[in-house]
Write a structure and sequence with these properties.
By secondary structure, this protein is an alpha/beta fold. The chain contains nine helices and seven strands. It binds NADP nicotinamide-adenine-dinucleotide phosphate.
C-alpha cells in the first residue's frame, strides 16, 4: 500500500522533538503540506526542516500553557497554507506533581498539565471544527497515553487524568460530528524513547520502563508515525472514535 498525502494540509503540534517530530517527518515524506509548532526548541525545529521544500511547511512558535494561542495558530496556519485537513494534537507535558506538594504547587501542576494537554487541544478543536464542517471532512488524531487506561505513578496523576480527558474529547468529536464528515482517533502510546520518557527513566530507572514490555525493545517515535500516516490518509475512517494502543504489548485492554 503506497500512501500518498499530496494536497493535504496537516497541523502537527509539538513537532520539534520526539513523537511529533517523527510524525511530521513521515507525513512530509508522504507528500503532505505541514503546519508545525514548537514551544522553545527552535534550533531542533530548524534541523527537521533544513532540507524540506519551503512551500510545503511553516513553523509556529506557540506556548500552549496559554490555550488561547490555539485560535491564532489555526487562523494563521489557514491563512498561510489554506484549509487544514487533519490535526495531530501531539504537544504535551508530563509534569511531576508530588502528593507532598503544597496546595499552590499541586493546583499549579494540575492547571499547567491540563492547559497544555487538554485545554489547548480543546481550543484547537473549537477553532478547527467549523472549517471541517464547512468542508464536509476533516480528521483529528489525538495523542493520549497508555496512562489514560492503566493509570500512572502517584507523581503523574495529573498527567494520567489529562490523557483520559483526551480520550473522552476524541470520542465525543467522533460521535458528535461523524455525520458531518469529521473523524477522530486516539493514539495511546506506552513508553516511547523521547526526552519525556527519559525524565521517567531518570526518576525510576530503565528497568521500570522496560520490564512490562512484551517486545524486546522500547517503542521509538518511528514506531508511532506510520499509523498516523495511515489514519490521515482516510483509509481507516471507519475506525473513527477508536483508540490505537502502541505500547509494545505492555498493556493490553
Ligand atoms: N514519550 C512517551 O513515553 C509518551 C508516552 C505516551 C504518550 N506520550 C505523548 O506523546 C506526545 C509527545 O510526547 P514526546 O515524548 O514526544 O514529548 P517531548 O519529546 O517532550 O516533546 C514534546 C513536544 O511538545 C512541545 N511542547 C512541550 N510543552 C509545550 C507547551 N507548553 N506549548 C507548546 N508546545 C509544547 C515541545 O516543544 P519544544 O521542543 O519547543 O519544547 C515538543 O515539540 C505527548 O502528548 C505525550 O504526552 C508520550
Amino acid at each position: 500500500m503506497d500512501i500518498r498525502l499530496d494536497g493535504q494540509h496537516i497541523l502537527v503540534t509539538g513537532a520539534s522533538r520526539g513523537i511529533g517530530r517523527a510524525i511530521a517527518e513521515q507525513l512530509y515524506a508522504s507528500g503532505a503540506t505541514l503546519s508545525l509548532t514548537y514551544r522553545q526548541h527552535k534550533s531542533a525545529a530548524d534541523t527537521l526542516t533544513a532540507d524540506w521544500l519551503p512551500h510545503r511547511y511553516r513553523w509556529y512558535a506557540i506556548d500552549f500553557s496559554d490555550p488561547a494561542e490555539a485560535y491564532g495558530l489555526v487562523a494563521q496556519a489557514t491563512a498561510d497554507q489554506g484549509p487544514i485537513h487533519t490535526v495531530v494534537n501531539n504537544a504535551g507535558v508530563a509534569s511531576s506533581v508530588s502528593i507532598d506538594a503544597s496546595q499552590e504547587e499541586w493546583l499549579e501542576g494540575w492547571h499547567h498539565t491540563f492547559a497544555v494537554n487538554v485545554h489547548a487541544p480543546a481550543a484547537i478543536t473549537h477553532a478547527v471544527l467549523p472549517h471541517f464542517q464547512e468542508q464536509g471532512q476533516g480528521r483529528f488524531i489525538n495523542i493520549s497515553s497508555r496512562a489514560a487506561f492503566r493509570g500512572d505513578t502517584p507523581d503523574y496523576m495529573a498527567y494520567a487524568a489529562s490523557k483520559g480527558a483526551v480520550v473522552a474529547l476524541t470520542r465525543s468529536i467522533a460521535r458528535g460530528f461523524g455525520k458531518k464528515g469529521v473523524k477522530a482517533f486516539t493514539i495511546a502510546p506506552g513508553f516511547t524513547r523521547t526526552e519525556m520518557a527519559q525524565d521517567f527513566i531518570d526518576s525510576y530507572g530503565e528497568d521500570y520502563v522496560t520490564r512490562d514490555l512484551a517486545l524486546a525493545e522500547m517503542t521509538t517515535p518511528q514506531d508511532i508515525a506510520p499509523l498516523i500516516t495511515l489514519l490521515a490518509s482516510g483509509l481507516a475512517d471507519h475506525a473513527t472514535g477508536g483508540t490505537f494502543d502502541i505500547n509494545a504489548g505492555s498493556y493490553v485492554h
